Amino acid sequence: MSGLPNHFYDLVLACLYGLADEEQAAELSALLEKDAGARQEYIDFLCMYAHLHRRKGACLFVEPSTDETLLNEYAWKVLAEEEKRAEAVLVERFAEEPVPAAAGGREGSRRAPVSKLSIYSLILSTAALIFLIAYAYLSPDRGEAASVGRLNRTADAVWQGVSGHNMAEGCEVYPGPLKLVKGLAEITLETGARVVLEGPCLVTVETPLQVYLAEGRLSALVKGGSKQAFVVRSPTASVVDYGTEFGVFVKPDGQTEAYVYEGMVQMRDSSDPVRFSKSMLLKKGQSGVSDGQGRLSDLPVNPYHFVRAGDMEVFEQARNIGGYYRWRSWVYRVHREDSSLAAHYFFERDGGDEDCLINAAGQGGAASGRFGDAGRNKPIWVPGRWPQKEGVRFERGRNQAIVIPAEPSLSFVQPLTISTWVYFPEKGRWGGHLISCREKHRINYQFSLFDDKYVYRYQQNRFEFRQYDGAGKAGFYSQVFVPQDGMWYHFAMVFDGREVRFYVNGELFQAAPYAGMDKAAPAEIVLGAMKIDGYVLPEGDFDGVVDELMLFRRCLSGAEIRDIYENGKP
User: What is the end-to-end Cα distance of the chain in Å, rounded?
Assistant: First the structure.
């Protein structure tokens, strides 16, 4: 035992029998981790005890191991708990001889002697049992306990029931349950599949080809060419994939949603992917839902409800760099937490269709816009608030517009919040009709900012909000506002049916009474111009860059408007 402390075996025995305190356990763990000789002494010590136990014919022999697997905290807990739960060994009692009665008529008594051989047997049996448990746990060939992947990276991850040390980036992942309380974690499985968990979620990694999602969200990026399918099971469904990218969301009641980004998956109506009754095939851009009873339907699912493997960088850089990454991480939060978000136009082009303005909040991309219209040209893509982002440039005099077809989910009157980011590159020429949802003269809502070139003087250099039901109601026009050129602005308008509020860069600009309409009518939305039986008032065409536009079906508070500004400012 050269080089080892004299109390080495005392530490081993104390840990094996659950008698060690934290300091002793830490000392032995450190020795085994750093000293290969200590590890060999440890194995030889247990082998010796097991080999000596021959009373009932037991004989163990283990070849010296060259494996460098280290005992970890969990291994020590297993050893200690198994020892505590071990069945008691009956100690043989010898027959007692009668003892003469003592003076006074009381009988004396004495305890039966304990067999030293039984004590040795107890020690050796327990040591042998513990050794078998330890060897089974620590052996690299432990079958079901083999690693199924690796924790690739995390972002603000908080785990429950797992120490931060054991779930550090780069650690091995073994079969079993994982509970992510919050944050993100990306696991790369042995098959090459990359799975992103989003807290809160409860998932069990069953094999390198199969996981069980009890509750929460995950996305999977599966490399093509695999001979075996990758499967995500839930309480009510199975999603079977053969090389694609998709997201799965399991609600507390078991309802399961799936969305396909690339490739194709099959959604089955059973948690058992082999035994099922019905299935549906989902291709790129399609989604499906299995309700609490396992019924399948092709209901739309928001693709932005899942964090994809390629988006992990957003959350990694949100704190370190801020800017664009801070905004994108905020976007994910808003999309999950605020069900009143009716439309969210990023003003970033879709790779497959440059003339499409995607509604990121729409269920499956509903209520998207088109560049250009009858008699109108297309605005152009330009750089946005950050180098990673784009915007759309409207220029007065070029007859440009973006049109969103009539959509009931966007045709409402109150409560309402409109939020947008704009930039005015031209000095002395800016603003105009930003957004209007109207069918001829009937107006659900119209939000504009006019410069001093507009035809009506009482509207010049003012914000406008208008609702009109044909009964003669006029719009509301704010106090004078003149923006600086070359500066990004965040504008917001909030209306509850009785009061209208305008915000500039997160601060309340003006609040005033205004009576709106009670009922809405389906109407298309026009961005950048005003349309009444054809386009009119070209001097009111919008001039500037629009970077983002959001519509909420509720009144946001001043603090929430400020939150939008703080997380989105360039």
Answer: 65
- 446, 437 Cβ separation under 8 angstroms: yes
How confident is the model at residue 213, as a pLDDT?
97
C-alpha to C-alpha distance for 148 and 456, rounded to whole angstroms: 70
Residue 320 CA to its chain's centroid (Å): 19
Query: Measuring CA to CA, how many Å separate 398 from each of 327, 376, 377, 391, 543?
Result: 32, 8, 7, 17, 10
Structure tokens at 202: 């409860």
Q: How far is CA 117 from the centre of its chain?
A: 60
| Whether pLDDT at 446 is above 50 | yes
Q: To the nearest whole percent, how much of the chain has pLDDT over 90? A: 54
Question: Under 8 Å CB-to-CB from 256, ≥6 apart: which residues?
Answer: 234, 235, 236, 237, 239, 248, 249, 250, 289, 290
Q: Are 556 and 422 in contact (CB under 8 A)?
A: no
Comparing 44 with 283, the larger pLDDT belongs to 283
For residues 450 and 459, the answer to whether their CB atoms sit within 8 Å is yes
d(CA 49, CA 61): 10
3-state secondary structure 201-258: EEEEEEECCEEEEEEEEEEEECCCCCCCCEEEECCCCEEEECCCEEEEEECCCCCEEE
Mean pLDDT across the chain: 82
User: Lowest mean pLDDT: which of 339-343, 472-476, 561-565?
Assistant: 472-476
